Amino acid sequence: MDLFVDWLAVLIIVALGIMIKYFKMSWLIAGYNTSSAEDRRVMSEKGIEKFIGNGMFALASILAGGNIGKYLGNHFAQTGSWILFTAVLGYVIIRAQKYVPDKTPGESGRRTNTTVLILAAYLLVFAVVVAGIVYGNRESTVGIEGHWIRIGGIYSTRIDIKEVTDIRMEDSIPAIKSRTNGYAFGDIRKGHFLLQDLGKGRLYIHSNKGPFIYILTNDSYTIVNFDSPDKTRKLFAELSEQWKLLPR
After folding, report:
1. Are the C-beta atoms of residues 79 and 40 closer than 8 Å to each other?
2. Which of 4, 32, 127, 232 is the most buried (most CB within 10 A)?
3. Axis crossing angle, helix 77-95 with helix 107-137, rounded to the nearest 10
4. What is the DSSP string of 161-229?
5. Are 96 and 46 in contact (CB under 8 A)?
6. Is pLDDT of 1 > 60?
7. 174-183: long-range pairs with CB below 8 Å, 24+
8. d(C-alpha 62, C-alpha 201), whole Å
């Protein structure tokens, strides 16, 4: 499923680029269809289809590079590719304004003001996207407070120690069938997922390599690991020791 999702965006963007650049489907460009026939002619003469098409190919290449980096084991490749994707997308949006024709002496100034507003809105969206990625990729905090196992960060939760039936460590996890309500970026998975054989539960994993800590209850499970195997083993030892000492 993740493989399909990773490459679906790349294929869609490439297809759009081909349709716009080579088949002149200019109606796919936002704002083109609502322009007058004369404006559309001027934009085409200036080469807007070629520019947008090439922009699409560049965006697709960035995402493809991130996917390849991910499969080669670079945990930050996909994160970096999305950040670069957002930056290049902003450039394409702003640069495309030069293909819009000036109608009156004051039109150029108004277009500049519009460009500034677009840039400001884009920068706001860019900041939100980057902040979301940074927050989502931040390592989860895990510990026992009283009779609760608390997991902090995005999709934070707590587990009543009295309901825990087992805490164990495994070298792998079952195949992830789908994400029901969670965060997924690169190897990071946080939130609610559906796993083969285990069903629905929570994941807080930062690496696709073991070990993994399984926290089991009667009706669900939570799986945790860190990018550092040593840190995962240390957390397992701490959780196991405290769990065995607490009354249940």
Report:
1. no
2. 232
3. 170
4. GGGEEEEEEES--PPEEEEEEEEEETTEEEEEEEETTTEEEEEEES-SSS-EEEEEESS-EEEE--SSH
5. no
6. no
7. 174/198, 176/1, 176/2, 176/203, 177/1, 178/1, 182/155, 183/136, 183/154, 183/155
8. 33
* Sheet containing 148-151: order of strands: 142-145, 148-151, 157-160
Determine how β-strand 157-160 pairs with β-strand 176-185.
Answer: unpaired
- The values of phi and psi at residue 98, to 5°, are -70, -15
Q: Enter the tokens of residue 131.
A: 């902040």
Torsion of CA 82, 88, 29, 123, to 10 degrees: 90
Contact 164, 215 (CB under 8 A): yes
- Contact 87/126 with Cβ under 8 angstroms? yes
**Two tokens, residue 214:** 């399984």
Q: Where are the domains of the chain?
A: 2-137, 142-245
pLDDT in tens, 19-54: 999 999 999 887 787 788 888 899 899 999 999 999
3-class secondary structure, 33: coil
Long-range contacts of 119-124 (CB under 8 A, 24+ apart): 119/90, 119/94, 122/90, 122/93, 122/94, 123/90
**Pick from 129, 127, 139, 237: nearest CA to 190:** 139
Largest CA distance in the chain: 80
